[in-house]
Amino acid sequence: MRIEDIIPYEKNARHNEKAIPKVAESIRQFGLRGSIVLESKTNPVIVTGHTRVAAMKSLGWSEVPDDHIEYCDGLSKDEIDAFRIVDNKTGEISTWNIALLKAETKRLNLTNGKLDFTKYGFKPKNVKPYGAERERTGDYYNLTICDRTRCIDDGYPLLNGTEYVPTDLLGFNYAKSDTKPEGKSLHFFLDDYQFERIWNNPKEYMPLLRKYEAVLTPDWSLYRDMPLPMQAWNIYRARAIGDYWEREGLTVIPTLSWSDRESFSFCFKGIPKDSTVAVSTVGVKNDTEAWQLFREGMWKAIQEVQPSHILLYGGNIDFDFKHIPVTEYANSVTTRWSGKEKRD
């Protein structure tokens, strides 16, 4: 049948343009292996096969072999129109087993040039090999940016530390909308949900973080009712991200955090001695128990970490830091509520 006699359906709702060169390549490589379904011999309007017909035209074909033509004999006009839509839609339902797909393309010599699957719309770089569950799990735990080899004997990455003291601190939740990052550093004294994305996509946020003079390590929560392994995990994550940032060239200021005495066995791991460190006093001033725990934890930190400078976010709480220089930064939330000028 001559291609020029085949009529495209004028109300075809499918956008086929991007698929035409892929299908044409398939026909060139493997020949025409599917059928063109038309309404009838007397009304050769395409029901299924718009892309194949367009691909054949692009290849310079003038005819479609008769054994590749089928007709919708026995169907009403409405049934034909419905079949046209259903045939397109059902093709969208199937999904790939990505691991098996990778194994099969590898078996077919994808890498040695005999078959280039990219010509047909595949993106091999996004396909992980069969049995890659371990690799996917590694991605979930960010083992590509910090694994056991990055950790010292106590199980945590050891940060390099810095002597840098920021002029201004800005909450990470304002970083994307901030138009003047010059001279500012980012803090994470926020609810965890506002920066969990840092862990989920650490590489994605590097361009944003590079705009700032320095970054404090994330302050994932150590609530007293959290199981200790969960608290230790949050400490590990903070060190792992900080270690990654340092290797990416950022100035990283370690953040101190703890819950109660039980957390002292791990909460200061990975923080170098004689470095600037940051700590938050938010929520401590008006809570007697919290104040006592802050006092005990701060003394323990001073003994173990021996910081050269302390950044105090949230204001002074009448704690004697002895000889250690302290720079105070106001909590932007409480400052806004009080109507005062904020410092971050």
UniProtKB/TrEMBL annotation:
Gene3D superfamilies: Conserved hypothetical protein from pyrococcus furiosus pfu- 392566-001, ParB domain (3.90.1530.10). Pfam families: DUF4417. InterPro entries: DUF4417, ParB/Sulfiredoxin_sf. It comes from the Bacteria. This is Chromosome partitioning protein ParB.
